[in-house]
Amino acid sequence: MEVKYQYYLDRLTPHTAVRWVIALISLIFFASRIVLLQGFYIVAYAVGIYYLNLFLLFLTPSIDPALEFEDDDDGPVLPSKTNDEFRPFMRRLPEFKFWYAIYSIVFI
C-alpha cells in the first residue's frame, strides 16, 4: 500500500496546478465540515496557526542575509568578481513539502 501511495505521489509531483487545486478542494471540504458540524473550532484554530507557520517558512529564505553579515556595517553587497557565486532565492520550506503538509493535515 505504501509503494502504491508513493507511486501516485511521484506521478502528481510535476503537476503543480493540479496539486494546489486538490489542496484547495480539501481545504474547502475541511471548512465546510467545521461549519456544518458547528464544532472543532479549537482544532481549526490550531490548524490555521500551523498553516500560517508553514506559509511563513515558505516565504523565508533558507539563508538569512541579516544573520550572515552581522559583523559588517555595510550589509550584503552584490558580487563584484566573476568568480563570486550567484545564489538564487532558495526557500526554507520547498513548495512540494509546503503542499504536502497542507494536504496531509486536512486528512489527519
TrEMBL record:
The keyword Transmembrane applies. It comes from the Eukaryota. The chain crosses the membrane at residues 17-36, 43-63. GO terms for cellular component: endoplasmic reticulum; Golgi membrane. It is found in: Membrane. InterPro entries: Rer1. Keywords: Membrane, Transmembrane, Transmembrane helix. GO terms for biological process: protein retention in ER lumen; retrograde vesicle-mediated transport, Golgi to endoplasmic reticulum. It holds the Pfam family Rer1. Its main location: membrane. It is a multi-pass membrane protein. Belongs to the RER1 family. This is Protein RER1.
